[in-house]
Amino acid sequence: MADIGTYPGQGLGLPENGAGAQASVARRAGAVAIDWAICWAIAGFTVRLTDQLGDVATLTYILWLVLGILCGWLLARTPGMAALGMGVARVDAPGQRVGFWRAAVRTLLTGFILPAAMVDADGRGMHDRATGTTVIRS
């Protein structure tokens, strides 16, 4: 049986506190809420101009997926993560870019909610385990 460690992220070789430490579940949830609010505001404005892209709820979800994939791929963080001082990092190759496919799979799995809410001893959600990533403090 693997050693659990004394703090989240220890099993991944992350520091206990400060930059590079595992981000808490509450902080990550806050980042998702910020991203969702941004997408909701854009969707609300867009739906006032046209209904060709669906209703507010549908467009919010679509925008949130696009935001997560593009920002995860290009910046390794979403606006919500940046606002709360976090970013996505690869566990298998520290310092390497997350990449498009990891960002896409990670975001799509996060959209199902349960994979992100189910965390292991290191504080990683199932979506992070599936993509070899973790969310760290910056």
UniProtKB/TrEMBL annotation:
- Name the predominant localization: membrane
Q: Where would I find the RDD domain in this sequence? A: 23-130
Q: How does it sit in the membrane?
A: Multi-pass membrane protein
Answer whether the UniProt record assigns the keyword Membrane to this protein.
Answer: yes
Recorded hits in InterPro entries, A to Z, give: Pra-immunoreactive, RDD, UCP021697
What GO CC terms are in its UniProt record? plasma membrane
Give me the segments passing through the membrane. 56-76
The protein's name: RDD family protein
